[in-house]
Amino acid sequence: MRLIVLLFLTYSSAYAISLNTYWDENDTVQLSKVLEDVLKTKKDKIASLHYAVSGLKLLNVAPSATLAQAVCEVTKKADLKVLETLYHASALSGDLPSCALSKINEAQATIENVLTDSNPNGEKITQALRSADRLGIKVNKAAFDKLLEASMKADDSPNNLAWVFNAASLLDKLAAAKYFEKIKNLVSQADEVDKRFLQFDGGLFTTANAIHGILSLAELQGKVPAITKDQMSLFTNYLLSRKHVFTEKSAFFLLNALGVLVNNHQLVPVSTLLVGPIMADRSKPLTITVCNVFGLPVVSSSVRVDITPVGTTKSIVSNLKLTPVKGSPKLYTIPADKLPVMAGFYSVAVKIDSDDKRLVGLTESNILFKISDDITVDDLKVGVLEKDEAITGTSLTNVAQFSKLGKTLTADYTKRLYVSFSVKRKSDGQLIKPSQAFVLFKHTDGSEVFYTADLQNGGGYVVDIYLASGHKDFESLSGKYTASLIIGDALIRTPLNWSFADFTLTLPYAAEEVIPKSQRIVYNALDEIRHAFRQPEKRPSVIVSDAFTVICLSPLFLLIVLWLRIGLNFGNMPLSIWTLFFHGGLAVLFTLYFVFWLQLNMFETLKYLAFIGVSTYLSGNRVLKAIAAKRNLTSVSPRPIVTWDKAERIRRNEEIWANPDSIVHRLPKHYCKRYWDNLLRDVAPVHYRPPASRLYWDPIRKVEIEAENYPLLVIYPPEADEGLWGGEGVVKGWKESRPYTKKKILPRHWVPRLYFPALKTHVLYSEILDKHMKITVTERALRLIEQNFGLDYYILRTPEIDLASRLGNRLKREMLLTLANNACYPDSDERRNYIMRKYAEFVMPAEEAEWVGLDLNEAARKQQDIEEQQVSEPLKFKYERELVSRLHAGTDLIANEEEFIPKTQESKFGDRLLGKFFNPVAKHFRR
């Protein structure tokens, strides 16, 4: 059996592309019943009615007149303002006789509304174009073309591309040409399953819709799509494997795809399969069907076959031309005299000669069949032997074939059972080796024990059972057993099940296995658990109880004494109504406990305690919060203070910001906001650990003191701006002069030292900029890049103050500008869309991105350059333009011109220079 399975798997993997099934009449009958039931049970769902009616039409099955009339009434009442409803109603109107829609204007408005949708998908566009095509409505195909192209760029998933190709098949041939080139992008997303199927993510619905769209678009263009014949066969295999569907939507899309696989001028798959069972009869010819996926015959000049044993490459029958069956153009026969003589599995490679260039699978089809034989067992011997007895002819008894031994054999646990036989082919008497050979021992109570027969060197089989050790297989069950011989194989025509002898076995008793209690499975009901309250203990004497009462009340007495001695601290008591509620609640609680001690029981006390305790808890929480807020104890974390480094950053440019005429006040608002956010941000601690809590215990003074956050002074040399140091820099410190010398020998001194970070050169890649960069980095920078899953996320997520590098800020600015301008990967739309989706959270306007990462000096210089490039307009042109605009508007009157008449003044310059009357040029200055 293992050999046969191995050969079968070899055949399956080698010939997985073969198309060996088609849609037959049984499938049509089965699915038509399902679709007719939908028309009866889902009358209020227009989508289900559409799929059912269209599916029946594709099956060439007409629904009853009553059902058709009922569906037509639902169609006429449909709300055509909804696009999806219009799509289904238009389909029903075209598939049902005398069921035309009347509200064509309303349908046209619904279709045109798709053009105003901000982000329509391919499905909506297809529904709109398909509805317009069915109802004969003219639409603006150029506008739909632009909308469809935008949808394809926004979503390149298999589901959306399938709808896009269906919509493109409804456009003009010239406009649909660009979509035809994208078919290879869709086919490349298909997943191969077991080297037999090709399918898209989304299953049958997406795959069938994609095949229909691809072939419809190819039919419009008159070209063969970018899909190989093997891929088409794998797609068709997947569709036919799902032909037993039971939902109307899946059935419609499946039939729609199979229909276009038959009715197109580009690719038509051919199916070849065996008529009848896989087991062939040597006396009868072998019949083969050659047809399309709907079982219709294909045009062929001849059909030839090669017959090859499975597992070999040498054909035993080559280039055999088949004889067509009269009256059935799709059936061909292999003569009985051409069938193989030896039993085994055989592969039939079918080669079809046809002038039809559309046909797919003319030379790749393979069919599996087998030749089987009858067997005989004529030397079955059985006997009961001693444990060490030699096997002789007298110790065994022959059993005639298909008969039963006349006597019952008796054996106990000291004996052994011996059965031998050989299996021969009935036709020529040759020994064969079946894959299954067993001897079954069946007790009268139905218990069964199987033993596998061992193959001997001579080709025979032996079953030798030592009951001394084999009684465990029988579970020490003594009694009468019937022995049967079971032989089976894939190449045996009729398996053998032969009861050949009866045995009476006396087996030793086996001790019952003790199962641990934890592993026992008890199915009986357990005893009921009855709870018994413990008897109350004897109460102590009155003296003992009074003594313990005094001891319990002693803290209260001590509190009263201390209040009288020290006094009550009413000064820190919050003045609020919650204080009264809290202290009043405490008093009531003590009173309740006292009453409980006197007369209440536990349940009554808990009932009162629930109300009093909740109110006391809430009021006490308010009181404690007020005290904590008064003492500033609401948080144990360090209070937000301005550390020395933050104060230094603020004072660094204080004079520039204090000057109202400074250029920094003309910088863009978004830069100023980013600048101050970065300036006032706390620097991530790198070379020190900030205090974890606001207060800490001083073991010397025995008090709690407030912790101080004092960052270390980090020096960033110019080299830090040329690399990515991850916030590390040069730190001043001290080093012990003789760290390994004992104190008593020589005194130790502390000498100043500079601590430098460990630098290395590393090649980093930016997928936004699409380039590799050789950058000086530290281990911390590499660790941060790894934690942020790449250089781009590290640069974009890290604030400028923590980058501490001009190179890092420049890279951030370049990345943001690239994202803002959508300029990454200009040669690959798919890669660019992936990058834009991945880093969508960082996208900002280009006007804002070009200022990111600039320090104050660079920003001021950039603003100064911008202002210098702006040419000021002369006032005479400005006033002239304003006057013309007022005259056009009619708001400038002649009376108003007197106000603007220039007044003549005598020039003091001319009078003082040469005198009022002697200066000949003075009049030129009197203005």
Q: What would you report as the Rg, rounded to the nearest angstrom?
A: 49 Å
Distance between the termini: 122 Å
Overall CATH architecture of the largest domain: Alpha/alpha barrel
Proportion in β-strands: 15-25%
Average pLDDT, to the nearest integer? 83
- Count of domain modules: 6
Estimate percent helicity.
Answer: 25-40%
Strand order, main sheet: write it out.
Answer: 5-13-11-7-8
**What top-tier CATH class of the largest domain fits best?**
Mainly Alpha
Summarize the biggest pleated sheet.
5 strands, mixed
Tell me how many strands there are.
32
Task: Please give a structural write-up.
By secondary structure, the chain is an alpha+beta fold. It has 6 domains: 25-269, Alpha/alpha barrel (Glycosyltransferase), CATH 1.50.10; 270-371, Sandwich (Immunoglobulin-like), CATH 2.60.40; 375-506, Sandwich (Immunoglobulin-like); 546-630; 710-866, no CATH class; 872-927, no CATH class. Helix content is 39%, strand content 18%. The protein is built from 30 helices and 32 strands. A 5-stranded mixed sheet has the order 5-13-11-7-8, covered by helices on one side. A hairpin with a 2-residue loop joins strand 9 (323-325) and strand 10. The chain is extended, with a radius of gyration of 49 Å. Residues 1-15, 909-919 and 921-927 have low confidence and may be disordered.
